[in-house]
Amino acid sequence: MNRGFVLSSVLYFLALINPASKVFLLCSMDPRPRRRELAHLALKSTLVAFVILLLVITVGTPLLERVFHVQLYSLKFAGGVILFLVGLSAVQRGRFHETAHRGQLDDLSVVPLGAPLIAGPGTITAAISFATEHGWVPATLTMTIALALNFGLMLLAFPIGRQLERIHAIGPLVRITGLIVAAVAAQIALDGLHDWLALLVRN
């Protein structure tokens, strides 16, 4: 694997993981967790997402095709549509998710942070299709790097949030990020549709 391929793949997965949504969700928690609690929350949610994504990378395609009788192009289309709705909601409403209440941090680290906010429909779909096209080793490597970068940004959520609030940039940034997510999602859905049409033409 060359560096350019790894870099572009990491950025692609990072866009799907969407660190901005995690930063904004953490900043909206009331009351905000202490530093140690934030580190625990970020680490546990990242590990939960890593286990989920590692499973779909290694056994996702056989599980879909042999157990559920779902082809990859169907997963691409469905995952793209769901992710597009998330991006569209952010563009329209100026936020990805509702304001978070502190509650049980362990519960929040699994749901919604670990899944579906990190290991969501778009990320799972991309992980399976990437592993099918390039192999599970490149998929695992690039996904791990993207998760590590997201983890680092989650640890810096409060300083990042304060700086963005100071310049009133949260709303515009959420909408821009939502537009990027929606565009990536549309591409995933169109790729699935293209694969299905190509199969029809061959048959």
How large is the share of residues in beta strands?
Answer: under 5%
Share of helical residues: over 70%
Taken from the alpha-carbon principal axes, the silhouette is globular
Oligomer: single chain
* Run of helices and strands: HHHHHHHHH
Number of helices: 9
Computed over alpha carbons, the radius of gyration is 17 Å
Derived from helix and strand composition plus strand pairing, the structural class reads mainly alpha
The stretches of 5 or more residues where confidence is low (pLDDT under 50) are none
Mean pLDDT: 89
The count of β-strands is 0
The biggest beta sheet, please? none
Tell me the count of domains: 1
Gap between N and C termini: 34 Å
Structure commentary:
The chain has 203 residues and is mostly helical. 84% of the residues lie in helices and 0% in strands. It has one domain (9-202). The model has no long low-confidence stretch (mean pLDDT 89).
Give a brief outline of the structure.
With 203 residues, this protein is an all-alpha fold. The chain has helices at residues 3-17, 19-27, 35-68, 72-93, 105-118, 121-134, 136-155, 157-166, 170-202.
Which key terms come to mind for this protein?
single chain, 203 residues
